[in-house]
Amino acid sequence: MNHDTTPHSQIWELIPWVANGTATPAQQQRVQEHLRDCSDCRDEYAQQCRFLAGMQLDDDAPPAAEPALRRLMQRIDAAEPAILPAPSAPARLAARAVPWLAAAVVVQAIGLALLGSALVQRPPATRADYVTLSQAPASERAAVRLVAAPEMDLASLRRVLGETGLHIVQSNADNSIFGLAPARTAPAVDVAEAIARLRREPGVLLAEPAAGTAALH
Q1: What is the edge-to-edge ordering of all strands in the sheet holding 166-171?
Q2: Suppose 149 and one of 18, 34, 194, 205 were both cysteines; which one would form an S-S bond, judging by CB atoms 3.0 to 4.6 Å apart?
Q3: Which ranges of the chain have pLDDT less than 50?
Q4: Phi, psi (5° rounding) for residue 201?
């Protein structure tokens, strides 16, 4: 029997192990580097994460994304007033916004599923200064799902968001998977072009349209 031993096929076989957190650090690094240039493997990685989240997510557990999203928005508001309007309460910029992806890949996948669940199951907001995603205007719903590489720092993230006219409207619990939407202060944004630009950024591991979201212009 012939076995395909090309680098692409080897990475393809490693993707499930990286997604479930059992790959070695060296294997994780190989996969992360390959995903930056291979759209087929990025799609497979995203599919594996969604599949794993569906198997492990406890349907009875309350969504934990809303508190994390509130904290993240406060941090981004303080760091980038040119992109987001300033919040009513003071915010503190975190020392780092992108934790080590490979060490928390299972948590990331579960967080992504929690975000989707929160969109349809989130209870009404109890604070006057916070608007739930179900109450937000359509332009503020996530149009792009972004996973940043471990080495991407906050300054690089802010720069690429400014270049694409996007801003962060969602995050999972550990702030490693982001939902992006066109910024209100930016000109008309072509989401397909923005995704293509994100995928060319060395610090972006995965960029794809958010599930159930039509392209925005």
Answers
A1: 166-171, 177-182, 144-148, 204-209
A2: 205
A3: 1-2, 59-60, 62, 80-104, 106-107, 119-122, 124-139, 213-217
A4: -75, 125
Of residues 120, 149, 138, 193, the one with CA closest to residue 37:
149
Q: Bridge partners of 204?
A: 148
Q: Which two tokens stand for residue 211?
A: 């599930």
The domain segmentation of the chain, as residue ranges, is 7-207
Alpha-carbon span 52 to 33, nearest angstrom:
22
- Identify which of 75, 58, 114, 81 has the alpha carbon closest to the alpha carbon of residue 184: 81
Q: Which helix (H) or strand (E) holds 174?
A: none
Which ranges in 20-101 belong to alpha helices (H)? 25-35, 39-56, 65-79
